[in-house]
Amino acid sequence: MTALAVRAPAAPPKPRRLAVKVASWTVAAVVLGAFAGLDIDWEELRELPGDLVHYGTLMFSDPDWSMLPEALLQTWRSVSMAWLGALLGVVLSTLLGIPAAEGVGPLWLRLPLRGLFAVIRAVPEVVIAIIILTVTGLTPFTGALALAIGGIGTHAKWTYETIESAPGGVVEAVRASGGGLSETVRWGLWPVVSPELASLALYRFEINVRTSAILGLIGVGGIGDMLTTYTQHRQWDTVGVLIIVVIVVTMSIDAISGAIRRRIMEGAKARGVERSS
Amino acid sequence: MNDLTTRPEAEGDMPSASGPWPVELDDVTVRYPNGVVALKNVSLTVGAGEMVAVVGLSGSGKSTMIRTINGLVAPTSGSVRVGPHAVSELRGRALRHARGDIGMIFQGFNLADRASVFHNALVGRFSHMPTWRTTLGLATEADRAMVMRSLDSVGMLEKVWHRAGALSGGQKQRVAIARALSQEPAVMLADEPVASLDPPTAHSVMADLAAINASRGLTVLVNLHLMDLARQYTTRMIGLRAGEVVYDGPAASATDADFEAIYGRPVQARDRLGE
After folding, report:
1. CB-based contact A187 B119, cutoff 8 Å
2. In a domain, A171, yes or no
3. ipTM of the complex model
4. Measured between alpha carbons, how far is residue B187 from residues B36, B89, B223 in Å?
5. Which CATH number does the domain housing residue A211 bear?
6. Within a 10 A sphere around the Cβ of B49, how many other Cβ atoms?
7. Which residues does chain B have within 8 Å of residue A103's beta carbon, measured at their own beta carbons?
8. DSSP class of residue B5?
9. What is the DSSP letter of A166?
10. Which candidate in B134, B143, B172 is best for mutational testing of the A interface (most A CBs within 10 A)?
11. Beta strand B219-224 with B187-191: parallel, antiparallel or unpaired?
């Protein structure tokens, strides 16, 4: 009797989940392989916390505040570079991204455009800047152009993805009243997607502010340039000031731009009832 | 709620430019690329100036049918004719021109929320405007006057510079009607125009459509799924079920049994809007 009572009921067989197991082992192997490939010296790693404290003290115990005006000027250059790059990049991305969207451009136009964006995405901004500076020289304008062209890769992709995911009701209404392609894009698509595109444009500016510091490494000017120079000369009290300025400016711009983006998007929330038949 | 108080009176001073037109569907079948047959051998004629309800459950093909009439959906076989236009034969510019003579309103209003009421209604003039004007949103004095008169006729003139997104559902549908009227259409199509509205607003929008039919003599086809709206506001009813016409007769005298044949099930409480 008792033996019968405890016997488990006939449950369906447990699934074997072979795919999950294979995936887990693959991920584990990749992670372990990555560690091996990095050539890590564990002895040196133990010294890292001490080094951090050492250089932190050098940089921040007694920052050389006399460098502040120069640092702010160079930061202003970096921000200008980022802003001009975002402006140019967003305009180009919008012009190229709209015809790359499904339902707007024909296939023979969409494919090459998307290919172009993918190629640009694969090339880092620094490399683009190095190519451009053979023409325009080591100026902040080179940096702005590099940011603009480099930005097209991702920003044009965001543009056509935004258009493709936009609700199509207004487009249908414009077509139904006899509008052609240009009317459909201008009055069916643009009013619907422009808030999101504006938000993405600001986000592009935020990204460019950070990228412009990296572009300084190759000497196109701005705060990144100054940072590289003073690091190479091991003037840690000045580097400390520069890092503080970069962090404060970047965080402020992110906060302000983020607040504007939220305002744009919340204003865009549909208040009507949207149901499909 | 103030939608109710601003309901406009019918205006008889704006006859459509081309007069009302008949609509003819001859053996129309629509098969979508995914294999779904939305319409099966539908043949029917709607006379000029008639007010017709197309009734059916969702998925019955009534949305597809109304979209074949203005060429948003091309029939797989058969032909569609609206007045002088052989819609199912037309492509490109000629098709857009034909669409310009056919107004349409939608369940979801399909207004650009970010644009002004004026620019939304101006869309109705696009088939009469050159591209550079539509791109800039610049209307001639005549286009502007037409838009203002259309907005006035649905009681939305005072909202002309408001953003469409700031309006209530009933107001949005009125702007959508004004957009269609700005086309000076000969035929008006409506795809479930009141399904997103509360009952009092739904009644007033249906009354607007009936007034447009009566005063301008426009041919009106309206998709509905509610039996009392069909009976109250339209004269003729076409019942669709699984893509086939299963009823075609007067709307007012259609019995519950007729509706059960259209729905393919007993009549339920939700098949009526009520007050």
Report:
1. yes
2. yes
3. 0.84
4. 28, 18, 14
5. 1.10.3720.10
6. 18
7. none
8. T
9. S
10. B134
11. parallel
